[in-house]
Every structure is written in structure tokens, then in C-alpha cells.
């Protein structure tokens, strides 16, 4: 009886540690992706009014 409880407790501890590790890994990847998008991202606004006309040079 005690051995069965010990085995179940060990399995539960391994599963809890594994899920916590996976959760931390996923959250770190998501945070890294957000930092990457902020650093390399471009603005989504492209203002086209009030600028200079393009001069074609040949």
C-alpha cells in the first residue's frame, strides 16, 4: 500500500515538474518573439501626404 502511494506520488511529481518546464519554455519563446517583433518590426503606418514629389533622374 505504501509502495503504491510512493510510486503514484513520484509519477505526480514528475508530471508536475514536466508541465512546469514546458510552460516556462513556451512562455520564454513567446516573450522572445515579442521582443524580436518589437526590435525588427516596422511601423504599419505609411503616411503619403505632405511629402516631397519624387524627382526622376536619368
UniProtKB/TrEMBL annotation:
<keyword id="KW-0812">Transmembrane</keyword>
<protein>
    <submittedName>
        <fullName>Entry exclusion protein TrbK</fullName>
    </submittedName>
</protein>
<keyword id="KW-0472">Membrane</keyword>
<dbReference type="InterPro" id="IPR020065">
    <property type="entry name" value="Conjugal_tfr_protein_TrbK"/>
</dbReference>
<feature type="domain" description="Type IV conjugative transfer protein TrbJ/K C-terminal">
    <location>
        <begin position="4"/>
        <end position="58"/>
    </location>
</feature>
<feature type="transmembrane region" description="Helical">
    <location>
        <begin position="6"/>
        <end position="26"/>
    </location>
</feature>
<dbReference type="Pfam" id="PF10907">
    <property type="entry name" value="DUF2749"/>
</dbReference>
<keyword id="KW-1133">Transmembrane helix</keyword>
<dbReference type="InterPro" id="IPR024475">
    <property type="entry name" value="TrbJ/K_C"/>
</dbReference>
Amino acid at each position: 500500500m505504501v509502495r503504491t502511494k510512493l510510486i503514484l506520488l513520484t509519477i505526480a511529481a514528475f508530471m508536475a515538474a514536466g508541465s512546469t518546464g514546458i510552460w516556462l519554455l513556451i512562455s520564454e519563446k513567446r516573450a522572445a518573439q515579442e521582443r524580436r517583433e518589437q526590435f525588427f518590426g516596422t511601423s504599419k503606418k505609411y503616411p503619403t501626404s505632405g511629402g516631397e514629389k519624387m524627382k526622376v533622374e536619368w
